[in-house]
Amino acid sequence: MEKSLPAAWSNGQWIWLDLNENRYIGGNVERDSRLQAAQARAGTRLRSLIFRNKPLVPPMHVLGHFVRSSHRARKLSKLRIVDQLAALESSSERRQSTESVETFCWYYHYLRNLRLKRPLCLEDSLACAFFLRRYIKDVSFRIGVKQPPFMAHAWVQVDELVANDTKPVVETYSEILRVDL
Prior knowledge:
Elements lengths: L6 E4 L2 E6 L4 E3 L3 H22 L9 H17 L4 H10 L10 H13 L7 H13 L5 E8 L4 E8 L2 E2 L4 H4 L3 E7 L1
Helix pairs in contact: 2-5
């Protein structure tokens, strides 16, 4: 029996996410996907300016874990979404920490802004989830959609705290997939 596809209601139309084929179905998906790629590149530059407050210098073990998380996400980005999610769910690396959720989110933002080229939202969210999952419980990986024009976006949340984006940005998307880690 085939599992039903995740779906979201956006602007009067249903949109489905085919995890095995890495595609969205419904609405104006085909026409608007090129526009989304161009807007995503511009949006990442703007978001990088938002989080440039005072720099926090992370400990060396945190820096090393960030590099490993980013490398793993880059390798997984070539796979189907269903395989990426399976790797994310099977990761069981945990470490106790006395620092707050906000501190680790700031560490991630600081280190992410040092990269020469920021990845698109799916790869960035995978890296963020791998990174935060080591130190924090209840990390949630999410994908949302909106239209018109059709756009899809991935992000990571810890309870109500959006870890790798801003709350106003993700609130414009209808959640189509949520994976609690």
